[in-house]
Amino acid sequence: MGIIRSILDTDLYKFTTSYAYSKLFPRAYGEFEFIDRSNGDYPDGFDQLLRNELEEMSKLYLTADEEKFVRTKMPYLPPTYIDFLKGYRFDPSEVTVRMENHKLHINASGLLYRVTLWETPILATVSELYFRTTGQIPDLRYMEQAAIEKAHKMKENGIVFSLFGMRRRFSFDVEDRVTKLLKQNAGNSFFGTSNVYLAFKHNVNISGTHPHEWVQFHGSLYGYKMANYMSMEDWINVYDGDLGTVLTDTYTTDVFLRNFSKKHAALFTSLRQDSGDPFLFTDKVIKRYEELKVNPKLKYIVFSDSLNVDKAIEIKNYCGDRIGATFGIGTNLTNDVGNDIKGMNIVMKLFRCKMTAKEPWQECIKLSDVDGKHTGSEKEILLAQQTLGLI
């Protein structure tokens, strides 16, 4: 059995974004590129081991029980898309893997509604494979005790949170065990998990938002000034009020808030903060809601940027009764395994896209509320910053 054990062993947003592409842009192509922000070295032969895992993934399919779960718990996905998932198989020919001077290079390219499904499983596989090949052993007693203590502390402080830790988990087994411990110990504070398979296995809620790639794609298609607005319009067209959390920092939060209309403020229930200063973000969001004459007390912020329990408590106290606060906590839960092991700082981002096979490729870039999180060519990043008045 490979590291990825189910078609559903991925984050919710992969399926929701895949369906949105298939409905609105069924002929669009995209290319994702792997980035190790720490510029780490990988052991000899790592590329072949990863390739072997990708081949194992091609054997996965949606089981009858998994299909029943998706039809019951994910009603925003129509029967036509679930039928597609029943027939879907990972195609390793869509992915290239190579090593150069111990640096790992991965690209996934193809029809966007298909190729988007590679992102999170590849990241989880790289993470687990790296720890395995470098001989790093988790302290399971420490891991379990830490998860239980964090669950109790969040419950005591009224922190409502979801587990967002699939992409950089130590291993599937660790994420699986942590999910079970959170369910047993956090009570109603534990809202659910972004991992669809573990939601299925442990009978907990599925939680998720839309990703940066959705906004990046719209930036390439409609231009950077219209990207946030059009990506929200299209999400509404696809989901009609379901999945009402929107990501703000693809081209910086300041630019997003300029695009955030009263219609969007009314229809989306929450905004997700994924980079920058969470306290400054809170103040900016409340101010924008008040400008739009929308009561911020009826809305939520989903905080998901490098969180731990103490930071979540501090943010919740800062929000007070001015606006709702929920949390997506990832690596601090699924890769806190002792023995001085640190979670990997890896991502896969959309770098190119085109509307049909015949059209030329267009760059897809991502800005951020933190300079170090920008992705794309320096030339295109500069163009976007100039276009958006950020320079």
Poorly predicted ranges: none
Share of residues in strands: 15-25%
Considering DSSP H and I runs of 4 or more, what fraction of the residues is helical? 40-55%
For the record, the count of structural domains works out to 2
| Mean pLDDT rating | 97
Q: What top-tier CATH class of the largest domain fits best?
A: Alpha Beta
| Largest sheet entry | 7 strands, parallel
CATH architecture of the largest domain: Alpha-Beta Barrel
Q: Kindly report the CATH topology of the largest domain.
A: nicotinate phosphoribosyltransferase
Oligomer: single chain
CATH superfamily of the largest domain: nicotinate phosphoribosyltransferase
Class by SSE composition: alpha/beta
Please report the number of helical segments.
17
Q: How many beta strands in the DSSP annotation? A: 12
Silhouette: globular
Order of helices and strands: HEHHHEEHHHEHEHEHHEHHEHEHEHEEH
Radius of gyration: 20 Å
Q: What is the CA–CA distance across the termini?
A: 51 Å
User: Strands of the biggest beta sheet: in what spatial order?
Assistant: 6-5-4-10-9-8-7
